[in-house]
Predict the structure.
Amino acid sequence: MDNPELKTSNKKSIYSALAANVLIALTKFIAGAFTNSSSMISEGIHSTVDTANQLLILYGLKRSKRPPDQSHPFGYGKELYFWSFIVSILIFGLGGTLSIYQGVAHIMKPELMSDPFWNYIVLILSLIFEGTSFFIALKEFNKTRNGMGWWDAIIKSKDPSSFLVVFEDGAAVAGLIIVMVLMGLSHYLQIPELDGLASVIVGLLLVFVSFILARESRSLLMGEGIASETRLKIAQLAEKDSAVIKTKNILSTYQSPEYVVLMLIIDFEDHLDTEEITEAIRRIREDIKNEFEFVHFVIIQPE
């Protein structure tokens, strides 16, 4: 929520993704076991990991809403960033590497696939479920980005749950298409290695997605601050006060997508006494909170 207009997402896309993955994970494993398809087993792993990921994100969202206490005076908002980082590791460790391992093992010891009819049924149903979930996630994310470019919206968003489901579902849809094409070629051309290749490609896709998610979650977990354009706006707002000469520095950190801790070091007019500076600090703090609703705690230090 770096930009005042950049809103956080709701849980609708997470619940839709969870429902889709629960519906299809088991059917993928069953179809893969019956038809001896490596790529279908990899897709089953993918859906299982995605299911666990959505549960962890929901858990992180719940934990992050706990009120402040003595041990955590700024609240528990960073729980969401922690669990988002864990999810990115799971996508890499369980989703990506296991799929790559499964594919390489199938390439090293190829086995002809039996009739892939049921695999196609499962894949088509999965594509419908995943595609629906992806559409819902895109729709929800479009509400948060408010006309911004996709990559800019991801960088500026301080709510990993808003774009995590988009990446997961997008990777799932792409993976399903890859598996359908290569599995069909593998059966038609009688080249079982192509089925293993599909698993490897899906695994590499998941590794790529995990790196993007880990990068964003890590930055937020390590104490990312507000963007430079937001700092400039806050500085200009403070300097409108007649008591202020210049805003010397602004320090900030996101405690959650909707909670920023802000510190301003301000050079006040020399002729002001303590009472006048105190009143100026009160005015500036109030103006900042009114203008930027995500700034909840403001410390102002006279230079």
Notes: The beta strands are 244-256, 259-268, 295-302. The first strand starts at residue 244 and ends at 256.
